[in-house]
């Protein structure tokens, strides 16, 4: 049995919105705009804005893999997108709601695919050829990195480190 399967990819893919809703529960707009993961780090709102924008990009990549023969994904510049789209000026509740909506659409899309479609490939600008399974797993790993960043920005990681 392959290490990475659609079932494994889907298992964790659907968890991030739930985890984020728990972490963000009670976080005020002001705290989201001012809590950073370091002196030069991003605010919580910038991280959620990035996750929202990249969820849209990952969903687009999934559709391209399924609907196009060996598509090449455009390169993305997270820093430039954060500045251009003014993540920190947006409303946390709206950004998070959009993220959840897009993730649900992405999840519904990939859940409906055949095993053969899950093995289709695209070309990532850095990683090279990737299957749809790998794209979905990469999306989840991207989530985990940014969940940790949000936890750090909120100061929760200090409490966890003491455990």
List the helices and strands and how they pair.
Elements: H1 6-13, H2 16-24, H3 29-34, H4 44-67, H5 78-84, H6 92-111, H7 115-118, E1 121-124, E2 128-131, H8 132-153, H9 156-161
Antiparallel strand pairs: 1-2
What do you see in this structure?
By secondary structure, this protein is mainly alpha-helical. The N and C termini lie far apart (37 Å). Helices cover 65% and strands 5% of the residues. Helix 2 runs parallel beside helix 8 (132-153), helix 4 (44-67) runs parallel beside helix 6 (92-111) and helix 4 (44-67) runs antiparallel to helix 8 (132-153). It has a single domain (6-154), classed as Four Helix Bundle (Hemerythrin (Met), subunit A), CATH 1.20.120.450. The chain has helices at residues 6-13, 16-24, 29-34, 44-67, 78-84, 92-111, 115-118, 132-153, 156-161, and strands at 121-124, 128-131. The radius of gyration is 16 Å and the shape is globular. A two-stranded antiparallel sheet has the order 1-2.
